[in-house]
Amino acid sequence: SMISCSSNNSEEKSIAVGTGEEVVVATSVAVTEILDALGVKVSGVPTTSYELPENTEGAVEIGNPMSPDLEIIKSLNPTVVVSVDTLGSDYMNLFTENNIPSEFVSLESLDGLKETIITLGERFEKNDEAKALIEEIEGKELEVKEKAEALEDTEVLVLFAAPGSTMIATSKSYIGSLVEIVGGKNIIEDNSTSFTTYNKEDLSMLNPDKILVMVHALPEETKAALESEMASDVAWQNINAVKEGNVIYLDNEYFGMSANLKVIEGLDMLSDIVHGIGE
User: Fold this and answer.
1) CB 3.0 to 4.6 Å from 31: which of 15, 26, 251, 256, for a disulfide?
2) What is the sign of the dihedral through the CA atoms of 98, 100, 103 and 104?
């Protein structure tokens, strides 16, 4: 699940790795958190409104995760830049063309997160730390699955809302897969794609028990727009979950597009949300 682009100067790179003088740059928050949890020093971090790990204080900001500043990255002389692979081949090619040693990891699913932890653990000789992280994640997975066995099934519709558009998240998406782990039944059974468009009239016939909304980009504006649509649109008003106030907006720090280490707390949160515990 990892794609590598090697530097032209591979001899220098191997010397740096051998002497422990890694210069590591992370282009996403999730990658930064994983590297920090493994005990890897990160010299370059993305510019973000999210709080980054304390150990990265003093690291150089390298710009927006979707369009990092390659000149700043090159000025750090990194031995490796670690990025997520979801931004496509054009993004990957930028690093190759600029002779920047880079590795790409998949964080589109919980399995991808675990594979990334193992791969980065091997890359940076942090196998014990990686094993401990995997055990913690899998322990939480088992805990919420066992808890769900004693509870009634809840039919859930998961929406992905961004400025100007709303789609359905299937069980193939990261958030959709988490809903299934905690014992929710995704009312849309489509494993061919992570997100799909919908017809509101068809949704009202399905009638989910709860609607969970993952908000991406400009969360307050996006939430306000969807709330307004649900309040004024007859098709939404025909859905009991809307009428009864069972529309829950998920905290985007825990539930975003990419899998991240907050999943350990997130699974507990999602279990309570899906099953109505604490309401």
Assistant:
1) 26
2) negative
